[in-house]
Amino acid sequence: MESQTGESMAALSEGMERMEARLEAAAALFERAAALIEQQESERTGEVRKIVAAIDSGREAELEKKLEAAERQIAELRAQIEAKSETPAQSARRTVPAATAQFLAKQGISTLEAVEAGALDAALNGLSLEQRIAVKAQLLRAGVVS
Known about the structure:
Elements: H1 2-45, H2 57-86, H3 88-91, H4 98-106, H5 117-123, H6 129-142
């Protein structure tokens, strides 16, 4: 009898091992099926998964150097602009229309470097108000009068 119980115990344990292996295989299939269902659900709902990108540190350092150089150049250009804007009358080109220059020359104003307000008003006295305004506007644009 002991041999029959030993044999039945061996058969029972062998059967249990087979059942355990089948259950493990079924669990693995179930996990794969669940993963596929989740993937299909996320595709259907439009869910976006987390995207991870690797950054090339060499390229990043190169771009940072270029950015610093560009910022330095911008700062230099701004400094140049500020320096020029501090002395606009000295460095500005003084060009007056030929008709205005001839009219002022007839009135005794030959140099446009420094026109006195009194002399200008005396020279423009014979013109109408609109003409005086136009001549003064041209002189202002040219940087002759401030």
